Amino acid sequence: MAIATLRRFSLLTLLMGTLLSATQAAAEQMVRVGEYEIHYNAIETRFLTSEVAQANSIQRSIGHGLVNVSVRERQPDGTTRPVNASVEGYVSDLTDTREPLSFRTVHDGDATYHLATFTLRQDEPMRFNLDVRYDRNETPEPVSFIQRFYIER
């Protein structure tokens, strides 16, 4: 059991490292709302290692992407803690053809990630429209971003 837990932790750490390195060149994608930080990014699933993809039931493919959302709450001492948020949304193309995103939550030690896969569209800007509920007593925070993917075939 301990080996399986350690292996899963290592795979999730590798997944997040892959996601972070894939977006390092871009500006940080984050929205601050009061004491909360909503971090988000999207990558092609082909950039994931086969071990990470398999451990998280993600299909590695030239035609698929992965969107990752995490929410952290700032603490009085300046640190942050993960928040178990709910995320809903869709991705659309220029013609407003929408694909719903089905997020699932992954807990990894002191981190919580909300992951969803989607179909890539060749050389076309993709608009992500998300509703992130970090506090069940508040209305969801809308988060939108546009990203273009270049698919090498």
Structure description:
This protein is an alpha+beta fold. It has two helices and ten strands; from the N terminus they run H-E-E-H-E-E-E-E-E-E-E-E. Strands 1, 2, 3, 4, 7 and 8 form a six-stranded antiparallel β-sheet that branches. A four-stranded antiparallel β-sheet has the order 6-5-9-10, with no helix packed on it. Strand 1 and strand 2 form a beta hairpin. The longest helix has 21 residues, at 2-22. The protein is globular. The termini are far apart.
Provide a compact summary of the structure.
By secondary structure, the chain is an alpha+beta fold.
Question: How is the secondary structure organized here?
Answer:
Blueprint: H1 2-22, E1 30-33, E2 36-44, H2 50-55, E3 64-74, E4 80-83, E5 86-92, E6 98-101, E7 104-108, E8 111-119, E9 125-133, E10 141-148
Antiparallel strand pairs: 1-2, 2-3, 3-4, 3-8, 5-6, 5-9, 7-8, 9-10
